């Protein structure tokens, strides 16, 4: 005797309709869902550095977060991302900000230690933000770059209770023991700190 096929239950129909309404990219287990979940700053694109270029950690439990360190790449945005993805370079930063439009890429999770400061103690206690450009070419420091970077820095400061001042938002050149000069004399610190505080 053939068994009668049961019709789908109302619950299964409603569940199927609910899943159909969710964009595929956001469903658990999809590649894009992993991409969305990977960023700490919602406006950032995930562009991961190779695991050879940073130290896995569990900050702020393992190390307190006290600083945001401002860098200038001395390279283009795509070149900087490719450097961070090259395991032989042994360098990374948490974020890179593009000059033309202020687009933000996150390369290292904030709980991990990026290798950006040239000083292990400062690496462990800071978030590093690279800005596309050259220290001697102020045209790279666009309104969009300042504004979007300031929003990012403000969000980091809020998340970890870092004061929004020059004692805690440092230039790479201010890290003890460094031989770097970035962000350089063309970086407008007064404007930047004002934008961070108003963000």
TrEMBL record:
GO terms for molecular function: N-acetylmuramoyl-L-alanine amidase activity. It is an enzyme of class 3 (hydrolase). Residues 1-20 form the signal peptide. Keywords: Cell wall biogenesis/degradation, Hydrolase, Signal. Residues 54-184 form the N-acetylmuramoyl-L-alanine amidase domain. Pfam families: Amidase_2 (PF01510). Its EC number is 3.5.1.28. This is N-acetylmuramoyl-L-alanine amidase.
């Amino acid at each position: 005797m053939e068994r009668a096929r049961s019709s789908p239950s109302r619950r299964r129909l409603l569940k199927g309709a609910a899943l159909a309404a969710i964009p595929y990219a956001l469903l658990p287990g999809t590649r894009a869902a992993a991409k969305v979940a990977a960023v700490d700053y919602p406006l950032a694109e995930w562009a991961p550095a190779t695991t050879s270029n940073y130290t896995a950690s569990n900050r702020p439990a393992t190390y307190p977060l006290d600083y945001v360190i401002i860098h200038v790449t001395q390279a283009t945005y795509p070149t900087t991302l490719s450097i961070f993805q090259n395991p032989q370079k042994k360098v990374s930063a948490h974020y890179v900000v593009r000059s033309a439009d202020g687009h933000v890429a996150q390369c290292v999770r904030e709980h991990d230690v990026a290798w950006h400061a040239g000083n292990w103690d400062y690496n462990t206690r800071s978030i590093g933000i690279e800005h596309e450009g050259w220290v001697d070419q102020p045209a790279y420091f666009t309104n969009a770059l300042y504004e979007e970077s300031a929003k990012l820095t403000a969000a980091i400061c809020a998340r970890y209770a870092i004061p929004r001042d020059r004692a805690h938002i440092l230039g790479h050149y201010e890290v003890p023991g460094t031989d770097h000069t970035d962000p350089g004399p063309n970086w407008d610190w007064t404007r930047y700190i004002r934008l961070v505080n108003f963000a």
